[in-house]
Design brief:
Blueprint lengths: L1 E10 L2 E11 L4 E5 L6 H9 L4 E7 L2 E2 L5 H6 L2 E4 L11 H8 L13 H7 L1 H5 L10 H13 L5 E5 L7 H16 L3 E6 L2 H7 L2 E6 L2 E7 H6 L1 H8 L2
Parallel strand pairs: 3-8, 3-9, 6-7, 7-8
Antiparallel strand pairs: 1-2, 1-4, 4-5, 9-10
Helix pairs in contact: 3-6, 4-6
């Protein structure tokens, strides 16, 4: 579904990606893992058209690297950014409705709400609350729910576990699996390597803007060098 070939990008004046090539198969969860500063977030922004990239980015056979960010989103490639980027003073309901704005001409544009409520029942209970009053875990649920309102074909998640308690991390990652099971392909960036690899089908390890290891997630998780470098044993 998604293919990158020799992608190079800079962020804030510094070269962050050095010839990245990777593939995301249709219907898979692909994890991109690595330490802080490895280039993971820049990679997602390059795919989403939020930073200028050289090289080739293809989605379902179409070049994304030639498109502005809003047109990338129209192709069904949607990013849930690090930090969530919610509208803090708007209600949960309004944040979700804004997710459907790009589909405002569709009569059934709010149909994905049932999927969102099924994945995250807590959001249904808090529809009238302002986003800024939610807990960190609830805000992450809302950010993912808002993205699902666009009916993405490829959902990109940047550090969805950031700042969450372990129990909530498990809830969010379980929801990611259910999203994949509903037919949405997922590209997941995570620092929590063990948790990410436990739900992923394939994985790429980034180090200083380069892919240093790739393969089935189970093989990456069992790799002794990866375990020493990222799991402490």
């Amino acid at each position: 579904m998604l293919r990158l070939d020799g992608v190079t990008a800079a962020y804030r004046g510094l070269k962050a990606l050095h010839g990245i090539s990777l593939e995301v198969p249709d219907g898979a969860i692909v994890a991109v893992v690595g330490a802080n500063g490895a280039g993971k977030s820049t990679l997602l922004k390059a795919i989403a058209g939020q930073v200028r990239a050289e090289g080739r980015v293809e989605f379902a056979g179409q070049r994304l690297d030639l498109l502005p960010g809003w047109r990338v989103a129209r192709q069904g490639v949607v990013l849930v950014p690090e930090g969530r980027r919610l509208f803090p003073r708007l209600s949960v309901a309004d944040n979700l409705r804004l997710g459907a704005y790009a589909r405002r001409g569709d009569k059934d544009r709010f149909a994905p709400l049932e999927l969102v409520y099924d994945l995250f029942p807590r959001l249904r209970e808090r529809l009238a609350q302002r986003a800024e009053t939610l807990s960190g875990g609830e805000q992450q649920m809302l950010a993912i729910g808002r993205a699902l309102m666009t009916r993405p074909r490829l959902l990109m998640l940047d550090e969805p576990s950031q700042g969450l308690m372990p129990r909530l991390v498990d809830d969010i990652l379980a929801a990611v699996v259910r999203i994949r099971d509903r037919g949405v392909t997922v590209l997941l960036v995570e620092q929590r390597l063990a948790e990410a690899l436990s739900i992923a089908d394939h994985a790429y390890v980034l180090q200083t803007g380069r892919v240093v290891l790739s393969g089935p997630a189970a093989e990456i998780a069992a790799n002794a060098e990866v375990r020493r470098a990222y799991l402490g044993g």
